[in-house]
Amino acid sequence: GKRTATCEVTVSSKAVGIDEIEFNNSNEWANKGDSYYVEYSVYPSGATDRELSWKSSDPSVVSVSDDGYVQCLKEGMAVITASKPGSSKIKATVEIYVE
After folding, report:
1. Cβ-contact 4, 33 below 8 angstroms
2. What are the contacts of 58-65 at 24+ separation with CB within 8 A?
3. Parallel, antiparallel, or unpaired: how do β-strands 20-23 and 40-43 relate?
């Protein structure tokens, strides 16, 4: 005979937010003129809402774009902070020393 099966699919539009941000290194050394994406991870790894805010403690030494791309402009040190928008607790920092 003929058999049929049914299944119910529930689609959730709820975004999974970031609980933790972690840089691969706590500090990095770079040369003046270097530019690169800072390496980091977010948890949970299945987070769908991965938007971060980026900030440099001294943009004249190291500037950072909205997507974590740093440019080392002159010798010195700057702290780069990545944070979850709207949350003061979910953030991470990396110190970049420019030679």
Report:
1. no
2. 61/96, 61/98, 62/30, 62/96, 62/98, 64/38
3. antiparallel
CA atoms of 47 and 45, how far apart (whole Å):
6
pTM listed for this prediction: 0.83
Q: Which two tokens stand for residue 79?
A: 């702290």
Each residue of 22-68: pLDDT tens digit?
Answer: 999 999 999 999 999 999 999 998 899 899 999 999 999 999 999 99
Residues 6+ apart with CB under 8 A from 41: 21, 22, 24
SS (H, E, C) the chain: CCCCCCCCCCCCCCCCECCEEEECCCEEEECCCCEEECCEEEECCCCCECCCEEEECCCCCEEECCCCEEEECCCEEEEEEEECCCCCCCEEEEEEEEC
